[in-house]
Amino acid sequence: MTTVAPSRIIDLSRPRTVTDGHVKIAIDNRTGSPVHVRALDPRTRNGKACDCTCVGCGEPLSAKQGDVQVWHFAHLASTDCPATSETTLHLAAKAVLKTTRTIGLPRYEIGHYHSVMVAPHQHLVSNIRHALPERPAYQFASVAVEQAFTAGVAVLDDHGVWTPHQDYRLVADAVGTTGSGKSCLIEFVVTHRVDQRKEQVLFAVGHPTVEIHLDHLRAHEESPDLVARVQDHLEGLDRRHWIVPPIDLVKRAEIEARLHAQNRAEVERLVEVWKSTQG
Ligand SMILES: [Zn+2]
Predict the structure, then answer these.
(1) Of 27, 188, 202, 249, which residue is the least packed, with the fewest Cβ within 10 Å?
(2) In angstroms, what is the span from residue 256 Cα to ligand 1's centroid?
(3) What are the tens digits of pLDDT across the range 90-101?
(4) Which of 56, 59, 57 has its CA nearest to residue 94?
(5) Closest of 250, 199, 239, 241 to residue 217, by C-alpha
(6) 212 CA to middle of ligand 1, Å?
(7) Are 96 and 227 contacting, i.e. CB atoms less than 8 angstroms apart?
(8) 10 C-alpha to center of ligand 1: Å?
């Protein structure tokens, strides 16, 4: 990680999403947990009586639940709050994670594959793998959202074009820190997955990074139970993968070398067995 003058840094933060600007998720002051505007009873918790604060800026909010308008939370004071340019799903996922500090971490497999062709259409194959097990409902010691990182790296983009060494800035949706002080970056994906350039910058930043897809929850963006659905999904193991693996790269290379040797030896053994059956 390096610090250089902002003018020389290419910013890879997510472009501000075109949303309707309506904030529908807030922190319920009575529970300390995220709440969807549709989960509040408009008879008792309308306007300032909603008793909610903003996920993005921490300011008090006023619930707008009318017959004609889109139900949403409005800031009491005019503000340039980042929450107004976030999708409801991003806002919900960050708010839930900040409160529960819990996500399911997916399995990570180091694979190796070796094969030898002993006759036309006949291959002898060995595929011994090494797996780091998944960890459902893993709780971090702390979680921070919207953390910026900078890293210098030469990158290859999705069109196969190399850009020479350059400093990049990116903002992680969330960063979880373990009890032993290790960081894990978390990216929530609603429509656009992390592209190849950002992936290489994340590698250069060097922390394990998990990408969690939320797109299947879009149909529930207006549901009172959206927060519960998001929490269930985050704590489970579906629709996520490691972008930067949760293992030291030197250690991974050692395991790969060991698997390579094991798979070669296994194929050699299979070849001997095959030969002995050929009379
Ligand atoms: Zn705000």
Answers:
(1) 249
(2) 47
(3) 999 999 999 999
(4) 56
(5) 239
(6) 24
(7) yes
(8) 27
